[in-house]
Amino acid sequence: MSAHDLSAADAVERLEGLARRGLSAYGVGPDATLELLNISENATYLVDDPAGGRTILRVHRRGYHNHAQISSELAWLDALRADAGIRTPRVIPGRDGERVVTLPDGDGSSDNSRHAVMFEWLPGVEPPDEHLVDSFEGLGELTARMHEHTRAWRRPAGFDRFAWDYEAAFGAVARWGRWQDGIAVGPAEREILGRLDAALHRRLTAFGQGPDRFGLIHADLRLANLLVHGPDTFVIDFDDSGWSWLLYDLGAALSFIEHDPRVPELVDSWTRGYRRIRELPAADEAEIPTFVMMRRLLLVAWIGSHAGTELARSMGAEFTATSCDLAEAYLTGG
Question: What pTM was computed for the model?
C-alpha cells in the first residue's frame, strides 16, 4: 500500500497552499476563501468565490487513484444522474476544459503532482440521528437503485476502478494497510482478529462473485455521504467506489456503529428499502454479518494507516477493543 501522505502532521499546511495555487486552474480569483472540510483519502475544501459562488475542491492523495480511475469515477456520476435520476455533484472543468486537473506539488516535478477535481456545491445536511431507522430504509432503496443501474450500464472504453475483494482488503494489496498494524493491536487482539480474517476469507470465497452478488458499488454509502435538502437527496464522495460485493455497501453503511444495539433494526430497515427495488435472496441476507465484519476489520486497518487524521485519533484503541468483541460474537454466532 502506498503511504498515506495526507496523514502527515504538516499535511494541512502544505495542502492549503497547493489548493490555493490550484484555484487559478479554475479561474478562481485570489480573493476566494478556502475552508478545509475533511481529510481522508483526499482533502476536500469549500471554495467561496465572491465572483462565482461556492464550489467544492477535492485534492487527491498520491498513490490511491490515477488519472484514468478518477475520470472513470466521474463518468459514473454523470451516468447515475442521466440514467437513474440519482442526484450526484456535477463536475466543473478547469479553464483548459479538463475535468481532472493535475497540480504540481513541492518542486513542480511530475512525481510530486496531485490530481484535483472541482464539483458544484450542493445544499443540504446529513440525515439526523433521531430518524436513523427511517433513514436506513431510504438508504437501502437508494443503494438498490444504484446497483440496478450498474447492472445495465454500458461503461465507457477504458473504464477503470479498483476492487474491494479479499486480496484488496486483507491480502497482498491491503489497500488501507494491514489490520495487524492497527492501533493497539497486540498479541491478544492479533489472535482474535486473525481468526476473524480467516473466517472472512472462507465465507467470502464460498459466497462467490457472481454478477448478482458482485459489481460496481459506491463502497462508502453511509448517511454521512448523503445530503438532504427538502425533497432532494444528493449522493456524494464516490472516491472509494469500485468493484465489490453488493452487500459491502450495507457493511459500509454501518461504519463505526457496528456495536450499536439498533443494528438489527437498521439492517431490517435497509433490507426493506432495498427490496422495494431489487431482489435480495434469503441466502444473501444471511451473509450480511460477514460484510459488516469485513468493513469493521478494514476500518481497523484504515485507522492504523491514517493515524494522523482527526477521525482516526478520535477512534483510537477503543475501536480495536470493540472490534475484538464484535469479532468474538460473529465467530461464535452470538
Answer: 0.94
